[in-house]
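Hi V.,

You were right to ask for the full record rather than a summary. Here it is.
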Amino acid sequence: MSTSPDLPPQPPPLALIEEGAKKSGVLWITLDDRPRLAWHAWHDGAIYVVTGGGEQSLPGLAESGRVRVTLRSKDKGGELAVFDAAVEVVDQSAAEAAPAVAALAKQRLNAPDGAAMTARWADGSQIVRLIPEAA
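Predicted structure:
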């Protein structure tokens, strides 16, 4: 009797990813086989994070073509969804980036420079869009 090969796990539905990303301000991004905690914002069907320039250190994220993301359940604290996401660096000078930058600024707690934060990001940080692979 032959056995069927193991099928790869199916990605979670986009609705579950969106709900989890909106409810929890943190997630884990796997870089170099190591999960790294990151704060983020959900905007327009994707997750946005800021790295470098005095913000969270996520080395290698901007150069990655794809990463594994883990969302936690805000209610229970456990794993809610695990999925792969395409990685795109956002051109912060582009007009279409402004809503995503604003969404991130709203999520950033205790910024040392307040209103000047987004200018600092433009000078020394990268904003990265994580586009979920969903069912």
